[in-house]
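Tutorial, part two.
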Amino acid sequence: MKFGIRKPSLNKRIAARTSAKRLIKNALGIRAPRGWGWITNPKKAAYNKVYNKTSKGCLILILIIPILSVFIIYLITYRPH
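Running the prediction step on this input gives:
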C-alpha cells in the first residue's frame, strides 16, 4: 500500500485507457454504474478506498504550496490599523 505522495506514470495512464478489457466492456455496454464497485468487486473497492484516503496526487503540491505561501506572507506582513 502506498502512503504519501503519488508519482504520476504516463505509461500506466495510457495502459489503463487502452486495455482490451475496457474496450470490450465499452463496446458491448456492460459496465456497472458509478458507485457499484462494492457489488462488482468488493476487495478492489476496499483497497481503492484506503489507497485514495492515504495518498495524495503530486498536483496537490503544485496547487496548494503557492496558495499557502501567499497566505503566510500575508499573515506576516499584515498590520492592523
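DSSP finds five helices and two strands in the chain. In part three we will examine how such features are distributed along the chain.
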